[in-house]
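Researcher: Please generate the 3D structure of the following complex. Treat every line as part of one assembly.
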Amino acid sequence: MDHIVLGFSQILSVYHIGLCLAGALVGTLVGVLPGLGPLATLAILLPLTFGLDPLGALLMLAGVYYGSQYGGSTTAILVNLPGESASVVTCIDGHAMTRQGRAGEALYVAAIGSFLAGCVGTLVIALAAPSIGTFAQQFASPEYTALLVFGLIAAVVIATGSAAEALAAVAIGVVLGFVGIDANSGAERYTFGRVELLDGLQFVPLALGFFGIPEIVSNLESPGRRSVLAAKVGSVWPRWDRLKAALPAMLRGTGLGTVLGFLPGGGALLSSFVSYSVEKRLARDPSRFGNGAVEGVAGPEAANNAGAQTSFIPLLTLGLPSNPVMAIMMGAMILHGIQPGPQVIHKQPELFWGLVASMWMGNLFLLVVNLPLIGLWVRLLSVPYRLLFPLIVVIACIGIYSVNNSAFDVLTAMVFGAVGYVFFKLRLQPAPLLLGFIVGPLLEQNLRRSLVVSRGDPTVFFTRPISAVLMGGAILLLLALLLPQIRRGREMALKE
Amino acid sequence: MKVRIRSWRRFCAGVLVVAFGLAGVYFATGLKFGTAAAMGPGYLPVVCSWLVAALGGIVLTMALHDDAEVIEPPVPRPVLMIFLSIGLFALLIERAGLGIAVFVTAFVASYAGEARLGETLALAAAAAIASVLIFAVALGLPIPVWPGTG
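Model: Done. Output below.
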């Protein structure tokens, strides 16, 4: 309880509340724009937080993240365009409700469901994170190595399409993380004699190159996809009888999302998909789904927000980013000089609890500020894309440049944008690459340290209990990929 | 045995991954390798790059079994204009300053889509003025604003 008080005391200043609010609004603004999901939004806005103190920057980014998710579900409901992959399922029944003139109802159900889930998720973080953090403090480098290996493999196996391609992308990311001076020997690796590369590849140009630029180009390649709002929005003032019908689904979604958010590879996306299929299976009359069933909006929206919330736990307590959004958060923390891990809660409690409190605050803002602003977001949807994307390009360029005042970084982003575009065309997943890149240096450090201590004996990872369990889990996951039944089941699940 | 490529998407992806892995091995050959107990700077880059190449090999073999998948051909204009506009920003920011760089970038980027000259000029000018005001004046970022100040 003291901790929560500490957290709120950190952020209850006009400055910090303002940052959180600004983040939530800007996040919604960009999230409403077609085709820019939370990843691209975060990557584009990340550099703008550089002038802030670490807590302020994280507050703003957390606000941006929730805002962009909210913006994504708004466009899903109103114009059948998922602003992000987690709101794909919201399109199904949310847009059906809009066609029936019930857009207002869908919007407030989504907003209230998200808020409810956000509150529970925040509470779970506050309760669970300290003990996980304490547990993780007994980790030495072999445990860490095993944890990172397990986390990377699990994230790939659970969340992505082709496992071989995703594992390859992870490995490419790890190799890209080698660029720069080797901390142990001082030798230059993959620098090609460029001074700018001595510090390694920069995170912001890489993230923008793989997530921002390809999205803009692909939106321009298929301009016909945007549709306009056809029906009336209706009142966004909640009605109790309607809410009551949606409440059980919200609670189930919250529960599911909270649990699934813990998993590596879990988080918003997985939670919303699982919740939708659960709601459909539980319904007395499943045929309503697809025709404007309110549970089809309430469940997944609550689930994705709860999952988004609890996926902060592995990052904040273990230093393990379980999905690409968390990888961006981790990148932001590292840029601000914070190495996420078990020591954060103990060494920088004001930062940790401030962030937890701000999550709740961000959710509150989305409810009380964004719902009344719905008219504004609707109007924004009618601004032609041809006026918006040049501005997005400009903001991205200024953002990349301003991180280090480096024109080289802008060129790097262009090169990675080209690679990212090729990835996009070949339908290779860039997300595992980003995970590998961000986790790679940590993995190398711990792996080398473990093997120095064990004098080169790799069995060190299997003789210590915690690390043996994690390594065993990773091997089981890889073996599971080889079993045909499981592979087919997984493909079915991902398709659904 | 006849080898037939069924999925060109997989095939291209596999070639790309293998090429990256081999390049990774090649460019790390000059680095000291060391032993497992005392890894040199080149140890993990070489090992991981071989891993990349091996995984790429698996992707390649899958190209022989999968069903045909099409790669959608790129549309040249958006691709060229977006990358050109970003490249121009990198070139201009330190030579010509923020205002001119933003103007040129926004203008060129607009032509990735269906631009109209008058509207585009107005948009680029507005973007230039706004970014100078927001980033240089209000946020006070140390970005060169005018030519010759970089």
